[in-house]
Amino acid sequence: MYGCSDAKARNEFARTRDGAAMAAIPATLAPGNTVKPCPLRAPLVVTVVGLPCRGKSLAAHKVARHLSWRGESAKVFTVNENATNETLSEISLFFKEGNNVAIIDGMHLTRASRQTVATFCCEAVFHHLLIEFTCNEKCLQENVADTVQFYRNLDQNIDWERRFRESNDHHAPQFEPCSALEGPLITVNNSEDSMYHSVTARGVRGAIQTDILGVLASPVIRQQTFYFSRHGESEYNVLGRIGGDADLSSRGMKYAERLARQLGGPGSAPDCPRPKVVSRNYKSNPKYISTNSIWTSELRRTIHTVQNIPGPRAAIKDLNEINAGICEGLTYEEIQERFPQEFAWRDQDKFKYRYPHGESYLDLLQRVDSVVQALLTNTDVLVVSHQAVLRCIMAYFKGVKPDDVPYINVPLHTLLIVRSYGYDFVVETVPLKVECVDTYRIQPKVKYRIPYRR
Ligand code: F6P
After folding, report:
1. 74 - beta bridge partners?
2. Burial, 218: exposed, middle or buried (Cβ in 10 Å; 0-12, 13-18, 19+)?
3. Which are the contacts of 402, defined by CB distance < 8 A and separation ≥ 6?
4. What value does the mean pLDDT of the chain take?
5. 315 and 342, same structural domain?
6. Which positions ≥6 away from 166 have C-beta within 8 Å?
7. Residue 226 near residue 420, CB atoms below 8 Å
8. How far is CA 167 from CA 52, 105, 163, 220, 394, in A?
9. 444 in a domain, yes or no?
10. Buried b (16+ CB within 10 A) or exposed e, 1-12
11. Helices 111-124, 85-96: crossing angle, 10 deg rounding
12. pLDDT score of 13 more than 60
């Protein structure tokens, strides 16, 4: 779209484009009219552009999930073809309620349809970003097959394949790709081979738009399965101590054997699910995905938990447990006794509270971002980590808001299987029935708040 204040570009656009009929320039954008500059933290409207089955919805929801996980307030507004006045009113209301990113998932094939949203943003002083999706023929075939499969599960009486083909043929002649004067713009060219997935950007600015660009830069991998588990019960867990690098308790060792039996180790059924290095769809460059199918932290209790599970492994520092700083190695009772104020502050705002010389959940979320992004370009990976770290990772897949992350229940001796389902993820909880302590500490009711000062 025209930048709000770029009158010269608007005139140029209106005069030149191939002699084609141009969308009328709205009065608010006419040369000479003054427009308000858009503050950096103004809300952002994202308009998705592209023909059917080009990967728009998967990407739109992936972006919304990522932004919400990182503490922004993002929502996908699904429209039939183009945003209508009703959509725009809903978005205004959404922003009035304090939210800040609206993603309009529709085709927006014509310049006029995109201009409607651009004008709305300009008048309301919102940022506007376009994301245009295209894909090669092979990728289109795969997208259609996947979408058909998805809808067939919902209704078998409709010839979905024919419906998608007809929709594509009907809309293709209307498509006016985003012009050089529309922007900020990200174009995503999807390919069935992730090595050829490409993204270009023009005019992108600010942290949120850059974040979106980063999310779109890696391809969406369909049909993903991940396995997550905390380490087996540790000697510190038995004593109620936090942090440290204690080894497994005898029950923790039993869990390591039980987990291996569940995931392809000794005693497991030949057809049981297991972590594996997947080469499907990555033939041209198998190095693109991780060659390690088992990811642990660098701490003994996770490394020993996977010792009987077959598969290449990597110990990753970013999967280490939250650093409790001066409280490492203490029990919660000892922390309350020695550092009563710290203890109270943590209960008041567990997400933002940072242990002196240690970390907060907010820090942790930042730390595991790279792990989550790496997971999303993989499948069939087993991650064995710790309570706080797995809370942060599961928050992504479950769509949990940051403030609730520190209270997600990730019990010991339980396997979590996460499977993608369309643009969603389904989490299956499999308790492996090896006795252990419960390390969950419920959120206490805070009677009065102590000002947080350091
Ligand atoms: O108690 C086990 C443990 O992994 C500790 O090492 C860690 O400090 C704690 O859980 C994190 O949980 P919370 O944030 O609830 O204290």
Report:
1. 101
2. middle
3. 69, 71, 351, 361, 362, 365, 395
4. 88
5. yes
6. none
7. no
8. 7, 16, 6, 23, 37
9. no
10. bbbbbbbeebee
11. 30
12. no
Q: Which residues pair with 431 in a beta bridge?
A: 414
Kindly state the tokens that stand for 430: 């499999």
pLDDT of residue 27 exceeding 80: no
Lookup result for tokens 């809370």: 391
Q: What does the alpha-carbon distance between residue 394 and residue 214 come to, in Å, rounded to a whole number?
A: 20
Could you tell me if 212 and 312 lie in one domain? no
| H/E segment holding residue 200 | strand 198-202
pLDDT tens by residue, 240-251: 999 999 999 999
Q: How far is the CA of 411 from the centre of ligand 1 (A)?
A: 11
Contacts of residues 194-199 at CB distance under 8 Å and 24 or more positions apart, as own/partner, are 194/219, 194/221, 194/281, 194/282, 194/288, 194/289, 194/377, 195/282, 195/284, 195/285, 195/288, 196/136
3-state secondary structure of 310: coil
> What is the widest separation between alpha-carbon atoms in the chain?
78
CA of 324 to the centre of ligand 1 (A): 8
The verdict on whether residue 230 carries a ligand-binding annotation is yes
Same-domain check for residues 180 and 262: no
Q: Whose CA is nearest to atom 11 of ligand 1?
A: 388
The pLDDT of residue 153 is: 84
- How many Å lie between the centroid of ligand 1 and the Cα of residue 191? 42
Would you list the DSSP string of 337-365? Answer: HH-HHHHHHHHH-TTT---TTS--HHHHH
Question: Ligand 1 pocket: which of 229, 237, 242, 333 to mutate (most atoms <8 Å of CB)?
Answer: 242
**C-alpha to C-alpha distance for 440 and 276, rounded to whole angstroms:** 31
178 with 296, same domain? Answer: no
Q: Does residue 447 sit within a domain?
A: no
237-270: b or e for each residue (b if 16 or more CB lie within 10 Å)?
beeebbbbebbbbebbbbbbbbbbbbbbbeebee
Structural domain range at position 293: 225-276+289-431
Q: What is the 3-state secondary structure (H, E, C) of 133-150?
A: EEECHHHHHHHHHHHHHH
pLDDT at 245: 98
Instruction: Determine the Cα–Cα distance for residues 300 and 36; give it in Å rounded to an integer.
Output: 57
The amino acid occupying position 43 is P
Same domain (yes/no): 175, 299 = no
